[in-house]
Amino acid sequence: MKKFKWSLLLALLFVVIGLAACGDDETGSSTDDTENTSDNGDDTSAEETEQEEVNLRVVTTMAGTDPAGEVFQQVLDDFQEENPNIKIENDSQSADAGTIRTKVNTDFSSDNEPDLMFYFNTVDADGLIEEGKVVNLEEAEGVDLSGYNSMLEQQRREDGNIYAAPQSGFYEGLFINKKLFEEHGVELPTTWEQYEAAIEKFAETDIVPIAASTEDSYYVVEHYILAAGGMENYSAALADKNEAWAEGLNNIKKHADMGAFTPDAATIDLALAQELFKQEQAAMIFEGSWFWGQLEEAGMGEDVTVLPMPVYAEGGETGELVGGASQGWFISTKAYEDEAKKDAVVSLFNYLTSEETIIKIAEATGQPPAKGELSDLADYLKAGHDLVKNAPAVALPINDRIYPESFTHMRTSVPEIVSGDKQGEEVLEKAVEMAK
Amino acid sequence: MKGDKLYIFLFLTPAFAVTGIFLYYPFVENILQSFYKTDGFFNSTFVGLENYVRLLNDEIARGALFNSLELMLYVTIFQVGIALILAIMVNSITKGAGFFRTTFFFPIVISGAAIGLLFTLIYNYRNGLLNEMLVNLGFERVLWLTEQSSLYMVAIPTIWNYVGFYFVILLTAIQKIPNDFYEAAQLEGITGMQKMFKLTIPLIVSDLKTCIVLAITGTLKIFELVYIITKGGPANSSEVLGTYMYQKAFQDSAMGYGATLAVLIVVLGLTLAFVTNKLLQRDEVTY
């Protein structure tokens, strides 16, 4: 027994020594790297065949179920093949559940920022920009911003600078199962009246009119506000306490009372709502253009079409869309100011934002690209792209521009609005108060 | 003696360092954050006691507190109660005890997230197990998760998840009781019920006390089951302190207020553990 204990202690000792040795090795190698770097940097006159090795870390949301993940990795592999001295660590993480926000914020605040990242250029990036953690792309040497469509201009912040270069845009809308509409003899909802008629007709059947979660009611809230107010009121600031916002929220109750949602809408989440639609148990769903990927996987792309939310507000126009490009490529200031990394990071940035790469990634997702156009699109995808092209106005989702707590309050209050415990006006009042 | 002190110091240092770095330092940092309006990263403004004032006036936080306490009551009564009954029953059988021990302990090894998902699918309105059964039997579908029922519905898997843990503790305690006690009582003509109330329970009371303290303090940590099954809804009806804190700190980026809620959870946990200990204090039974 005693012998066993001693051997255990000895084994532990070896593990500790091993770990310590590994630590030294790493420090050693990084010192070597730095030495090599400075050597190479100083010795510019000598025509060295060996280029200095640069390690870059890239954080994106192209991971998990994102169909762009695989293509993105391929793009990185191609770049590394062309530039054997650049090693890229792909530290991408799915955008689901907002954990990417925590990751990026933690990385930046702990001096461990990624060199390049594809992140939300919304209220989420405010802190990074204010702290000067990311580069103003228009002033960055070597950065090529040519060839972009209007999506680039959408990235301009209040201070007049552009910090993020878009990859592709998105749109949100009313996804409709055409097959179910035909089977039940219901007209496609291109006006508010037709929309309400469709709800009424489907409510009489076993089909749920709208697959939605009233707790996770991001898209429902946005579209009902757009319908009630048109783009002008939709784009109003939260502090304005715009009447159309309250009216939109109250309309959700009106439609819930008509049987628009499944009885458990308050406890299902977005994924379960999507399942209802994909299992053809629901006729409509408010979703974004990224939803096409799931529909194609479910083999129902051909049966579905996307329509803009019917707007009934005076001054508004049906066709106005929630969408835009809310994500873009950021270069961290730390990487840009590091002479050893600067050229590599700019070169990778230009490669990733080249028309060829943008199209390659957009082909995987079916999203409207920020440069060039997609060819050979399926009809249903093209219809979506046409929606964007013909939209009289496009604006970003409300939650991308208002204080997060305020929007959470609005969306999580929808079940209480539906049950009649709260009114749209008081919910809005509280949301404004929270943002102060 | 001097040498002993050196050893004590040497051996305790790693533990102190680890708890200091990973427990006390974050906790102190958390208390500091509760005095700021901050997203935890770049935007930080000192607001003094504003978060605490907000906490006092926050209806949802109050609801979450009462829900946590209500859940604590169900969990303590049913988790420990059912575990006790099962332990006594398993102890009294001669055949198949191993099978029951494994079966009752099994839920413990399943992660909370998996159990949450399981019950989400059981309660689901249109395609859930319960409603499918009802429909097949010719009944109407039932909305299992409502504002009135949601808390009970999350209490069920919470109780089921941990019964096995207390069951094992209590079964071990019961099996430690010397057989002489029962033999002597048998000679005095003790009945089954009397044996349970007058012999078994009094002899394992210190273990029961431990279980109750663990159940009470453990309830404050409940998060994943509620988060997965109801997300605290509908209309915050099943919101508990853990889910509300998560929502504020990580979804709404209101890290300062989230930290204030965390302070409340810790203070509440310590107070409850202290009070329970005091209330249940009695002489230890030795045999």
From TrEMBL, chain A:
<dbReference type="Pfam" id="PF01547">
    <property type="entry name" value="SBP_bac_1"/>
</dbReference>
<keyword id="KW-0813">Transport</keyword>
<dbReference type="InterPro" id="IPR006059">
    <property type="entry name" value="SBP"/>
</dbReference>
<feature type="signal peptide">
    <location>
        <begin position="1"/>
        <end position="20"/>
    </location>
</feature>
<feature type="region of interest" description="Disordered">
    <location>
        <begin position="25"/>
        <end position="52"/>
    </location>
</feature>
<comment type="similarity">
    <text>Belongs to the bacterial solute-binding protein 1 family.</text>
</comment>
<protein>
    <submittedName>
        <fullName>Extracellular solute-binding protein</fullName>
    </submittedName>
</protein>
<keyword id="KW-0732">Signal</keyword>
UniProtKB/TrEMBL annotation, chain B:
<dbReference type="InterPro" id="IPR035906">
    <property type="entry name" value="MetI-like_sf"/>
</dbReference>
<keyword id="KW-1003">Cell membrane</keyword>
<keyword id="KW-0812">Transmembrane</keyword>
<feature type="transmembrane region" description="Helical">
    <location>
        <begin position="254"/>
        <end position="275"/>
    </location>
</feature>
<dbReference type="InterPro" id="IPR000515">
    <property type="entry name" value="MetI-like"/>
</dbReference>
<protein>
    <submittedName>
        <fullName>Sugar ABC transporter permease</fullName>
    </submittedName>
</protein>
<keyword id="KW-0813">Transport</keyword>
<keyword id="KW-0472">Membrane</keyword>
<feature type="transmembrane region" description="Helical">
    <location>
        <begin position="104"/>
        <end position="125"/>
    </location>
</feature>
<feature type="transmembrane region" description="Helical">
    <location>
        <begin position="71"/>
        <end position="92"/>
    </location>
</feature>
<dbReference type="InterPro" id="IPR051393">
    <property type="entry name" value="ABC_transporter_permease"/>
</dbReference>
<feature type="domain" description="ABC transmembrane type-1">
    <location>
        <begin position="65"/>
        <end position="276"/>
    </location>
</feature>
<keyword id="KW-1133">Transmembrane helix</keyword>
<feature type="transmembrane region" description="Helical">
    <location>
        <begin position="151"/>
        <end position="174"/>
    </location>
</feature>
<dbReference type="Pfam" id="PF00528">
    <property type="entry name" value="BPD_transp_1"/>
</dbReference>
<feature type="transmembrane region" description="Helical">
    <location>
        <begin position="7"/>
        <end position="27"/>
    </location>
</feature>
<comment type="similarity">
    <text>Belongs to the binding-protein-dependent transport system permease family.</text>
</comment>
